[in-house]
Amino acid sequence: MVIKIKEDEVQIIDHEKIIGRLCFEEEEELIVVTHTYVDEAYRGKHLAQKLMEAFITYLEPLQKKCVPRCSYAAYWFQKHPEKQYLVK
Description:
This protein is α+β, with helices and mostly antiparallel strands and 88 residues long. The protein contains 2 helices and 5 strands; from the N terminus they run ββββαβα. Helices cover 25% and strands 38% of the residues.
């Protein structure tokens, strides 16, 4: 499996198939997480968590804040209070 960051999403790819994605929209000083999805056949393997971790790695150097509109992203930030400084 490979994780790639495209212009508006983080993708997990397995054998050239996108099996998970975290979609976001960049605004001036904010990045809004709009959707997280993992293919049903791959659920239960913590792939949504890997998507969020890759997104955080992308977000931190930008010095922007995140608005987690996606329910999974909001849940992830609740479970990781050490990253709350990234949330608007």
